[in-house]
Amino acid sequence: MVFKNKKLSAACIRDFPILKKRVHGKRFVFLDSAASTQKPQAVIDAMSACYKNYYANVHRGIYQFSERASEAYEEVREKVRSFINAGSTREIIFTRNATESINLVAYSWGKANIRKGDEILITEMEHHANLVPWQELAKEHGAKVRYVPITGRGRLDLDAFESMISVKTKIVAFAHVSNVLGTINPAAKLVQIARKKSPAIVLVDGAQSVPHLPVDVQAIGADFYVFSAHKMLGPSGVGVLHGREEILSEMRPFMTGGDMISKVTFEGAQWNDLPWKFEAGTPDIAGVIGFGAALDYLSAFGMKTVQAYEEKLTARALPALLAIPGVEVYGPKETRDRSSAIAFSVGDAHPHDIASIFDEEGIAIRAGDHCAQPLHEKLGVPATARASFYLYNTPADIEALIRGVYKVKKIFRV
Amino acid sequence: MTESILYREIIMDHYKNPRNKGIMRHPDGSAERDNPLCGDRIVIAYKLDGKKKKLLSVKFEGTGCSLTRAGASMLTEFVKGKTIKELAVYTDGDFIADMGVPITPARKKCALLALEALRTAVGIEKPLIRKTSRYPK
After folding, report:
1. Is the CB of B4 inside 8 Å of chain A's CB atoms?
2. 20 to 30 Å CA-CA from A32: which of A16, A48, A388, B124?
3. Count of the separate structural domains present in chain A
4. Which domain holds residue A14?
């Protein structure tokens, strides 16, 4: 197979200083982007330029640098809006990460609206971030969390999804892309079914989708869509909550304090306008500005190009892994509607051992339950190894992955 | 790199041929420790001598990665004959030094799981004094 998009990967490697590092004397091969991605020089520079040239607190000062920092911070909000095609910047709220975005909805909307006997419908493939907040909310209010099963092929059981939704369902929450199985769920279709059969609000966990494929939140039509900057070349400490303005306006603030108020007296406070109503306290200013540079970087390629490139990597890695005797892949075995996260096992070798052997070869992969213990229970394994790709990975990285698997097989005599 | 291969060989030997593995009948004490994040689980059981001062024998059961299992297997050999008093001052660092293999911080939890189970079984706290360096030279 000819790798057409050489330009993309070659340009990328040059842009990521960490990818030139060596680990244990070997070329550093980073295959853990589903956990967190590496950062291009442009992001590092944007953050450093903010601190060096114009740093000040936002939305407060009357002096030049505060105005400039506020402007740079708010410009990123517009970049995020455009990146996911949201209707308005009033619908873009900066949080710490996708986890905080989900908690914001669970605490603010959930506590005000969930009653005894209500149902919260999520799926078996959820990350703990989109699972534990709902369990806690349900426990507190006497509601019930139900889990849409996955099929033997690692897809969401759509019939079950449809049959489990009823007028009792008040919240539907699901991952757009599974961080373990790599499955891409038909988000727009799921929202449609939910709308037809229930009064539920719908939240989509986009932590693994926004970094890897074009996302149009208006086309998907959910009430809330969440994701993290650090999984898409941005710094850690910045997340996004997209919410429909109508619902956000009715919701009470998640946290209270400075910046989220319009007026405070000794008797009480009035809330600030959207989106600031949900951004209490000083935000991660340089982080948000760095995230803006990450969005620019991805936009320069275009998310369609990024997705097509990753599909090519997956189309090479998946069959190569499946062809090795003793290797089991969890999740869809075909590249259609599948992201580049591949969970696998090698005979009875423990994933920790697999990851350690890979580490000796300079290759970083993830081992464990990937924050999805219930899913692993369903899969019948305590843990898996996971390789995941991004736009800076190359066919040479896949060759390294395959060589690593053969080394594991040799040591463990699989 | 040679050191790394040596480490694999010792670890893999204990992993494939674990010492003192199995269920102990009528132990003087036992405890289970698990690491839910990776599904590892170790049960340690021991017998004391007549004066109830010395570890006469130690056995383990359980599942886990090579380091968890090799750690448990090696532990049963190292602590045999030790007094409870000696065990009380046997630190994590001592154990890792005795294992004689380089263990990265990320894998320490695996290697130490059995030792933690044994401490729980005997009813002693983790000693705070570190007598040797963290990693063997």
Report:
1. yes
2. A48
3. 2
4. 6-38+303-412
